[in-house]
Amino acid sequence: MKQSMLLNQNNLQHLPEGVDRPTYDRSQLTAGIVHIGVGGFHRSHEAFYTDELLAQTGATDWGICGVGLREADRKIADVLKQQDYLYTLIIKHPDGKVEHRVIGSIVDFMLAADDANAVINKMADESTRIVSLTITEGGYHFNAATNEFDFTHPDVQHDLANPQQPKMVFGYLTEALRRRRANNLPAFTIQSCDNIQHNGNMTRKMLLAFAYQQDAELARWIENEVRFPNAMVDRITPVTTMSDIAALETSGITDAWPVVCEPFTQWVIEDTFANGRPQWEDVGAQFVADVTPYETMKIRLLNAGHSVLGLLGSIHGHETIDGCIADPLFATYLRRFMDIEATPVLAPVEGIDLEAYKSVLIERFGNPNVKDNLARICLESSSKLPKFLISTIMENLEKGGSVHYAALVIAAWCYYSDKGMSKDGVALDIVDEMKAELHQAAIQSQVDGLAFLKIESIFGDLASKTAFTEVYLPMLETLYHNPDIAQQMQALIGEPEALTA
User: Residue 172, by phi and psi: left (phi above 0), alpha (psi -120 to 50) or beta?
Assistant: First the structure.
């Protein structure tokens, strides 16, 4: 067993042979990017691309200052500080190969719970040219039923009344931009890196709604000066486990919070920035005029595919995405969903062979070395499914397409929200901001079969769509009488068929 070396700047050159590490001088870096929401995905994606750029080009003005807005971010703040903001990216290949790469692009981390004013001033500082976000779908305060900003949230009401002591992201952004404007500094770019269709447009709409309510003159300046590039992001990044940490230590690196990911990564960005940008295209990112077809493809195939497997698999008793794909029934069901319901409502994507893309997705999902837990996939489904799956259902209803495969997923979600257990009675860990409302509606579905669909903030008017409810209601009734979801999946697809990449 190798002697393990604590990960920090002093030990960087003494790490085991074969571990990639920063070759650039981190002490010379300026944080031109402030990133809010430093989770695993940010560290496997934007921070990874930026680390590549710093290593290959010698740029010094695009370091990253991480920001945590919640008290729950204290753990990552403490870990990164103790490790001089270094961490290990554990890249797991399908063939069992594992790469270890130390990422050095994060150079600071600030916790808003300790000093909100310091965080605002950092974003307002002249050196900050991009503020990027991974705040999850729920962080955008978007009401899916009205397509408008949700002003009812207590944090929103607080921020409107207390602009210098904000709690939510749009309060911080607005106050930072107010200070930049007051100091005659150019606006920064706000760059969403979340899995949301038109994520830049969404960010712009939500920020302007909040800002106009708080300060109309400032809002007009934001509307004219700030840029919000849309982007499609992709890299499967499961939650780091204690076994991942232990395995890394066995290989010679002591890292309190490494990040696990697959080798595949993709980033497609619209080239509209307010105040300069990194040359990420030099390290594999793709800049385009319109990201729409790329992000729609990804959201309706990869993200929706995750949700299909996550909800059906949880009821069945599978635990991981690769475990689902190893089951021919689930692999076939997913491919049928992609082919029959998702692909027909996708526009052509320049440079992408959709059939090959779907085959690669199946291969990626089946990577046995990336144990992506279904509980993580199902996190905050109330925020995810309107974009990932329900939009596909609505388009198929408009065009007379199939909704059977998606309908079973929604029925499974209702059962999942009601019972909170697999068909075998194993408790499921349900984490969702709307958990209580979902649970109550799901319980009522045994009296009113459409009760779950009547949550308008999620489903809009889906409950009134007879072409959907005629498919959904028998599935839901069958599931409550017999929670063996595999039987209904089998009935839809016939005999499972072997899939080839």
Answer: alpha
